[in-house]
Amino acid sequence: MRSFFVRAVDDQYVLRRSGDLWRLLVAIALSKLRRQIEVHTASKRAVTKEQRAIGDDDALAIAADREPRPEEEAALLDELRQVMQSASPAEREALELRLAGETIENIAETMGRSQRTVRRLLQTSRQELESRLSVVEPE
Q: CA-CA distance, 119 to 126, in Å (whole number)?
């Protein structure tokens, strides 16, 4: 719509017949859609060409490919408990339901909140947990 209004303000469109506006809007939409299709199907974005990046995330990727050790599980559970204790009652309830395997939709219905609110509550807990896990302890 932005493309249309920018050019309409400059009087770049001439609409002579009934229905010209709809034809113009459809033409703009189709053009943008074709451009998006080209972007998402370009050969440089082919799934078969995707490779795992090599860098600082290698340790994380290796850790994700194996089962956690018991001490790692215990450390994560401890951090999760700390996050749960510092969370608001709503954040705690949303997190408990999510950890129990509930969907966002079910959590929203159970809590009587919107899905957006539930996502925001979970995001706050996620950020807190990530910040706690990203702290590097001195060796």
A: 10
What's the pTM value of the predicted model, to 2 decimals?
Answer: 0.49
Say how far apart CA 91 and CA 125 lie, in whole Å. 7
The closest of 1, 48, 67 to 29, measured between CA atoms, is: 1
Question: DSSP string spanning the chain?
Answer: -HHHHHHHHTT-----STTHHHHHHHHHHHHHHHHHHHHHH-GGG-GGG-----STTHHHHHHHTSPPPHHHHHHHHHHHHHHHHHS-HHHHHHHHHHHTT--HHHHHHHHT--HHHHHHHHHHHHHHHHHHHHPPPP-
Q: Could you tell me if 84 and 95 are in contact, meaning their C-beta atoms sit under 8 angstroms apart?
A: yes
Contact between residue 87 and residue 128 where contact means Cβ atoms under 8 Å apart: yes
On whether the CB atoms of residues 86 and 128 are closer than 8 A, the answer is yes
Residue 11 pLDDT > 90, yes or no? no
